């Protein structure tokens, strides 16, 4: 009778344990998927913010360049104006010297000429001088107008760039605000997942304790007729798992450059994620990859993920080798380290760390 009771208790305990695991698995899996989905969304937002920051930086450079160009044109206009004034002054002096009293002065020139040939020469000289001065003045005035037109165009361009900068900064503020909300949602989701996991662990521990207590009571009543071999089974399973693990073939040795890249990247674990970061004081995902490849392999990669995804030749997920670039999606990149894992700068509020390749969009081998 005791054997039957003990068997029933053990069977019931196993059924409850198995059923609890089956029921918990979908919920846990759904929560994990939701967390990954939210992390991917935040990574995409980080990437969009980063690209917008690049645009704002370029706008600032354009604004500064336009200021320099406008300043230079202002000096050119001032110089041209002085040249015009100088030429006009010289022209007026010549006219006053030669035509003090209008037509009478010109008559004096005729009267003072020594013959027809001298008169023709004098008139021709006067015409040339007047024509040259007037031509120079006209040319300078034309140049001055051209410079003014360029300045107007630059002023207009500057206004447009400043407006674009203001629009981009407004967009950036909106993106950051939305991302802060998503970060909060993700943080709360992770806390909730941790709380549920802790509750599930406590529940399973309590169930195991209850099962062990019941089995112990039943065993003491029934003597030593029944033995529980769960620990031995567990040990056997562990041994089998260890054996299987040791029998798995190791991955082929990666190329030396790839190995150097991975080893070099590992030292930056714990460095915070920073938008636009490209140094050990803070990295974004593409900045981290670019920095590691530049310093470990002497290879200059493009700055953003869109450029890096075209920086080598594509490899499938099962062809990945340590050192390859791995893209879970177009907005995020990490360095594959083997065993289905990568080292990367995940998102704001996080640090450079090792994670599983939870999703695969593309692999790129850099040569």
Layout: helices, strands, pairs:
Layout: H1 2-98, H2 103-112, H3 116-222, H4 230-247, H5 256-266, E1 278-279, E2 282-283, H6 285-297, H7 305-308, E3 313-315, E4 325-329, E5 332-338, E6 341-344, E7 353-356, E8 362-365
Antiparallel strand pairs: 1-2, 3-8, 4-5, 4-8, 5-6, 6-7
Helix pairs in contact: 1-3, 5-6
Region (Disordered): 195-258
Coiled coil: 63-90
Domain NlpC/P60: 255-367
Written overview of the protein:
This protein is an alpha+beta fold and 367 residues long. The chain has 2 domains: 208 residues, Methyl-accepting chemotaxis protein (Helix Hairpins), CATH 1.10.287; 110 residues, Alpha-Beta Complex (endopeptidase fold (from Nostoc punctiforme)), CATH 3.90.1720.10. 71% of the residues lie in helices and 8% in strands. The protein contains 7 helices and 8 strands; from the N terminus they run αααααββααββββββ. A 6-stranded antiparallel beta sheet has the order 3-8-4-5-6-7. A two-stranded antiparallel sheet has the order 1-2. A hairpin with a 2-residue loop joins strand 5 and strand 6. Helix 1 runs antiparallel to helix 3 and helix 5 crosses helix 6. The longest helix has 107 residues. The radius of gyration is 41 Å and the shape is rod-shaped. About 16% of the residues have low confidence. InterPro entries: NLP_P60_dom (IPR000064), Papain-like_cys_pep_sf (IPR038765), PcsB_CC (IPR057309), Peptidase_C40 (IPR051202). GO terms for molecular function: cysteine-type peptidase activity. Belongs to the peptidase C40 family.
